[in-house]
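Continuing the series of single-chain predictions for the mutant panel. This is the parent chain; the variants come on the following pages.
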Amino acid sequence: MFFFNRININEAVKDCGNTPGAVLLDVREADEFRSGHIPGAVNVPLSVIHSISIPKDKPLFVYCLRGTRSMRAVAALKRMGYTAKSIGGIAAYKGQLEG
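Parent structure:
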C-alpha cells in the first residue's frame, strides 16, 4: 500500500510567501484559474507546462484542484531543471480566492 504525505496547502502558501523569490504556481486550466485562485498565483496549465517562462532560479510551489496534476507538473518541472514542490490542491485551501 502507498501512502502520500499529507501536505497542508494553507501552511505551504505561507511558506511560499516567506521564501525569497518563490512563485506560487497554479497548474489548473485557464478557465479553472479564472473561476478562483489563490491570490498571487501564476497560471501555467499542466497541458502547457513545457512552455513555462519563469526563471529556473525561482522556487516553485505548485498546486491544482486536488494534488494529482501538481505532482505531475512537479515531476516535469524537475526534469526541466526547476526546484518545485507540490503543495496539494486548492480544494483544501481555507483562505480567500481571487478571480
